[in-house]
From TrEMBL:
Residue numbers of N6-lipoyllysine PTMs: K63
Note accompanying the cofactor annotation: Binds 1 lipoyl cofactor covalently.
Keywords annotated in UniProt: Lipoyl
Protein's recorded name: Glycine cleavage system H protein
Length: 127
């Protein structure tokens, strides 16, 4: 089980796990639940430059289409092809196998994101 308190979060319902200068990004269980059954995921290609708060991908579900925002400025070093092949991973394991992209970032920028308490407050107390 991922330690949710060790992650950082965005107001767009993304989580970020930082290891060195590599940030692994996914959507939260709250977002996955609100989306419903995810049926399609489009992710940026490795090597792509992304800018914080801009749309970098798309997540479609049986209920709606959601946009994936870059939580930080950086370079995509890996996209999770397993999620593209099996979008249901976003619902079944959002904090594990359902991760979306890995970015090379300025590690100091992560400090500006929400901590777990801030994210829980944002979602109205939903864990």
């Amino acid at each position: 089980m991922t330690d949710l308190n060790a992650l950082k979060y965005t107001a767009e319902h993304e989580w970020v796990a930082l290891e060195g200068d590599i940030a692994t990004v996914g959507i939260t269980d709250y977002a996955a639940d609100k989306l419903g059954d995810v049926v399609f995921v489009e992710l940026p290609d490795a090597g792509s430059a992304v800018i914080a708060a801009t749309v970098v991908g798309e997540i479609e579900s049986t209920k709606s289409v959601g946009e994936l925002y870059a939580p930080l400025t950086g370079e995509v070093v890996e996209a999770n092809d397993a999620v593209v092949d099996d979008p249901a991973l976003v619902n079944s394991d959002p904090f594990g196998a359902g991760w979306l992209i890995k970015l090379r970032v300025d590690a100091a920028a992560v400090a500006e994101l929400l901590d777990r308490d801030g994210y829980v407050a944002l979602t109205g107390g939903a864990e």
